[in-house]
TrEMBL record:
InterPro entries on file: ADH-like_C, ADH-like_N, ER, GroES-like_sf, NAD(P)-bd_dom_sf, Quin_OxRdtase/zeta-crystal_CS, Zn-ADH-like_protein
Origin species: Nocardioides scoriae
GO molecular function ontology, one term from the record: oxidoreductase activity
Chain coiled-coil ranges: none
SMART domains: PKS_ER (SM00829)
Domain Enoyl reductase (ER) per the UniProt entry, residue ranges: 7-322
Protein name per Swiss-Prot or TrEMBL: NADPH2:quinone reductase
Length: 324
């Protein structure tokens, strides 16, 4: 079968498509679900994995692909799945192959209303958004959420999950084109990153927002903290801007605000059943149409590397997906 492989840590340009042996359902930790993959999400961890810069350092060669969607070929008894089911699934890596063996706790039912491409945009980003907003951010109905990198994968997921919780969203983007993507994903307001603090002040009648979702980091941090209202929470999710900011803790004291770390993968993977519980929390939002991942570009398997370069060069609109 074909798989998208990393054979050297020379980045996206060195990614290849190879023929590898199909997996069997007998995994080291018990019987696995076999999924025939249709679509794979293109994600930041893939980019970092291809350069050897991710916290996870698999032995070479390895298969890329964190989120994927397809149909079940076979499933262990009692797993809740059977042959032919449409599913989305998540792995640390290894989803970008025609057939994937995965533990049942990392496989989720995909509602008929969502395509395989949308399914491949779901698990990591939407479960991260749920964990960030509902668990770490303690988001309440009627609150306002500021979303940085709002036209990206985690950003669009955050806009939709926040909406599902009855929150108002303000999307921060770098271009008008990305603003359109955020608007289509359901943002209530869109502001350009340049000068966002003043616009947020206007949009909240000087009160500030309740939650900031920050995937960018870098020099946005100080203005993000200043954009929070009293008892606000800034959620640290990623550093796509390239630098890890420092926080002057006097700012936390002055306005009674929190900075909270969000590390979804490590938390969820260490707790069997946690991701399935999260999926159940957001499933009604998928069924009602509040969650409908905006898929941007689709690529062939051979172009997985090009998709990652587009992401690294900030050209990605919505979620990019590779078709197998
Ligand atoms: N903590 C967790 O549990 C967790 C889970 C999943 C992902 N993440 C992290 O979240 C981050 C976002 O992932 P994603 O999949 O949403 O990525 P993405 O789709 O590429 O979106 C990232 C956004 O960041 C913005 N950005 C600002 N400066 C950038 C730069 N120099 N280069 C690239 N983008 C830049 C871009 O928006 P503008 O151009 O509009 O500014 C872009 O849309 C990554 O760092 C990822 O590792 C964390």
């Amino acid at each position: 079968m074909r798989a998208v492989r990393v054979t050297t840590l020379d980045g996206p340009g060195a990614i290849t498509v190879e023929d590898v042996e199909e997996p069997t359902a007998d995994g080291a930790f018990g019987p696995q679900v076999l999924v025939e993959t249709q679509a794979v999400g293109v994600s930041f961890p893939d980019l970092l994995l291809s350069r050897g810069e991710y916290q996870l350092k698999p032995e070479l060669p390895f298969t890329l692909g964190v989120d994927f969607a397809g149909t079940v070929r076979s499933a262990p008894e009692g797993s809740g799945f059977s042959a032919g089911d449409r599913v989305a699934a998540v792995l640390g890596h290894g989803g970008a192959a025609e057939v994937v063996a995965v533990g049942a706790e990392s496989v989720f039912p995909l509602p008929d209303a969502l395509s395989f491409e949308q399914g491949a945009a779901l698990p990591m980003n939407y479960l991260t958004a749920h964990f960030a907003l509902a668990v770490r951010g303690d988001l309440q109905e009627g609150e306002t959420v500021l979303v940085h990198g709002a036209a990206g994968g985690v950003g669009t997921a955050t806009l939709q999950v926040a909406r599902g919780y009855g929150a108002r969203t303000i999307a921060v983007v770098s271009t008008e084109e990305k603003g359109e993507v955020a608007r289509r994903a359901g943002a209530d307001e869109v502001v350009l990153v340049e000068g966002f603090r003043d616009r947020v002040k206007e949009l909240t009648d000087g009160q500030g927002v309740d939650v900031v979702m920050d995937v960018v980091g870098g020099d946005l941090m100080t203005d993000s903290l200043r954009s929070l209202g009293a008892l606000g929470r800034l959620l640290v999710v990623g550093f796509t801007g390239g630098t890890i900011p420092q926080v002057k803790v006097n700012r936390l004291l002055l306005n009674n605000v929190d900075v909270r770390g969000v590390g979804w993968g490590a938390y969820a993977m260490a707790r069997p059943g946690y991701m399935r519980w999260q999926w159940e929390q957001i499933l009604p939002m998928m069924e009602s149409g509040v969650i409908a991942p905006p898929v941007g570009a689709t690529y062939a398997a051979e172009d997985f590397g090009r998709a990652l370069v587009d992401m690294a060069e900030r050209r990605t609109l919505g979620k990019s997906v590779v078709l197998l």
